[in-house]
Amino acid sequence: MPSRLTTSSYAVLGLLAVRPWTGYELTQQATRSLRFAWPKSERLLYAEPKKLVAHGLASALQESVGQRNRTVYTITDEGRTALTAWMATVPQPPVLEAEALLRLLFAENGSVNNLTAALDQMAADAAEMYEQVVTINAGYLDGQHPFPQRTHLSVLFATFQLELFDLIVRWVDFAKAEIDTWPTTEGLGMTDRTEAILNKIKQQRSLLESPPTGP
Amino acid sequence: MPSRLTTSSYAVLGLLAVRPWTGYELTQQATRSLRFAWPKSERLLYAEPKKLVAHGLASALQESVGQRNRTVYTITDEGRTALTAWMATVPQPPVLEAEALLRLLFAENGSVNNLTAALDQMAADAAEMYEQVVTINAGYLDGQHPFPQRTHLSVLFATFQLELFDLIVRWVDFAKAEIDTWPTTEGLGMTDRTEAILNKIKQQRSLLESPPTGP
DNA sequence: GTACTATACTGCATCATGCAGTAGAGTCAA
DNA sequence: TTGACTCTACTGCATGATGCAGTATAGTAC
Question: Contact at 8 Å (CB) between B39 and A95?
Answer without folding.
Answer: yes
